[in-house]
Structure formats: C-alpha cells, structure tokens
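Q: Here's a chain of 151 amino acids. Please give me its 3D structure as tokens.
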Amino acid sequence: MRPGAVSRSGAEGASRAAGEERALTSVAAGDRYEEPEELPRLWHVTLSVSGREAPLKEVRRGLEQLAHDHPFLLTSRYANDHAEIRYWEEARDLHDAAAVALRLWGEHRQTSRLPPWEIVGLEVIDRETYHQRIAEGYGPPPASSVGVHPF
C-alpha cells in the first residue's frame, strides 16, 4: 500500500503515520537485489526420429496423443518412416534441454503408442539464435501451423 493510501478496511496505515515509508524487511539496508545466475531459459528443440515404415494413421495418432499429453509441442511433421517434433523447452542450460529432448520419444513410446523409431537428429538452440535465424531468412520457418501434419 502506498504511504497515506486508504486500505480496504478504510483505515489509514494503522502501524505508521501518514506519509511514513515502510522499511523493507527481506533485504538489509544497503544490500542490492541480484538475479540468480542460473534462471531457466527458453530453448527451441527439433527432434528427428526414423525407423521402419509404420501405417501413417498410427504415426499420426501417436503424435497427436503425444501432443495431447504434452501441450508444449508446437508442431510435428511425419511420414511413414520418419517424423520431426518441434517445441520450446524451458531449462537452465543447453545440457538440460537436450537431456529432456533425448528422453522424450523413449519415455512416451508406450503411452502414446509411437513407432519404435530411434532418434536420428537433435537440434537445441537458444531463443535469440532461433529468432536471429528467422530474421535472416534461414533456418526452419516459424511453426505457425501448430499441430500434427504430414511432410
């Protein structure tokens, strides 16, 4: 509440006089707030998988189930023998984002009934690099059509 402002109960700052500043109790006088060094960052992830041919309907259904279970997925493209998943991951650093991405397909293969394909490609880039690539006209186009689509 601002000094001198009226509270919801209608009483002016009960424990201090009008115009008196309230002292901060969580920071000692003279101390400065410092950002924690390792805040999570956003990473753009592209995961590529491939393997033996599978029926397109089953591949699509599996990717749709994965997207339903994990709404962070931006877009998936698929064919009967490969797929690409693109999404944003919040992680402390590239190692953490890559570790999550490398587990994604295997951990959800059973629950989403995904094909038994292997990971054949992984790209993890920070948000700034992603936007720089788009601005310069190279790299993957922005994932404007969210969802599961054939190649």
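Q: Can you summarize the key feature?
A: The chain has one domain: 41-150.
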